[in-house]
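Usage

Read records sequentially. Each one opens with the input sequence:
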Amino acid sequence: MSERLLMAGGIAIIISLILGPFLIPLLHTLKFGQNIREDGPRSHLKKAGTPTMGGIIFLVGIVAAALLSAEQPTSLEMVTVVGAMLGFGLIGFIDDFIKVVMHRSLGLRAYQKLIGQLVLALILTWVAVRLLGRGTDLVIPFTSVHLESGWFYYPFVAFIIVGITNAVNLTDGLDGLAAGTTFITSLSYMLIALLGATQGGGVAILAYESDLAVFAASLAGGCLGFLRFNKYPARVFMGDTGSLALGGALVGLAVLTKTELVLLLLGGVYVIEAFSVIIQVISFKTTGKRIFKMSPIHHHFELSGWNERKVVLTFWTAALIFGLLGIISFLPSLG
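and closes with the structure output:
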């Protein structure tokens, strides 16, 4: 199993490193450059024109690595988790295409993205419950309790899926932040799959034979390879194509390993980023005052005098802590 994990991570890294030098100049030639918000940090204005939609670089590597390294590459589990990643990535690609190629700054309208994400979320939960026998119980972190949720499972988990995918998208605001954070979270999921994530109400155990661990290793490898080009100063941005795809990959792993609630701990950085936006909006609309200098919260630290690299390294450290906390919270469910 360790050989397959190393193979998966290695292939994803190598493909990303090979594709980068070819695709980045191509994106630049096609003028697929990033538009920078005028109301954002002034230091970001110099990033205008940096090629975006670079998520394609690591998506190719992840898919190839997962399918080449998996014991059963055509299994429904593997097809489902890869499909979740590519499905959300497609929504991001369409959004990027409209913004960058068609020069419509807003891209897809919010309700259009939300509808697409909800449809994918419900498909993912239905496949997991009806075709993979995942069941409708929720594992409570730090306990061995499986709370049966019945029909409520679908809207509740769909809410988590849509929330996390958009939270990953919000996190992609600094060079290397989303890629590095997801690299750490992916390694956490690889360990969870190896420890033996349960499905079907605890009837079947996904342990060392689990191809979900291979997918998580591929995800980690793709993010690590992409960091070669996305770390500060970034030569390419992943765009919504990449950030929504990463979110889709993580929620796919969460649903298939019965760790939807654990994901809220593993992805603590994403959750904080999302809540900082929610708190900022509520505060401004109700009181006319802002809690943070700017949201998402990584911009608050920038405007407080932290340089970009310090913010990213601090958030990566937080991601590591949340990852360990999430793994610890999962252990009691192993029985």
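Summary fields computed downstream for this record:
- The beta strands are 137-139, 146-148, 197-199, 204-206.
- The chain is about 65% helix and 5% strand.
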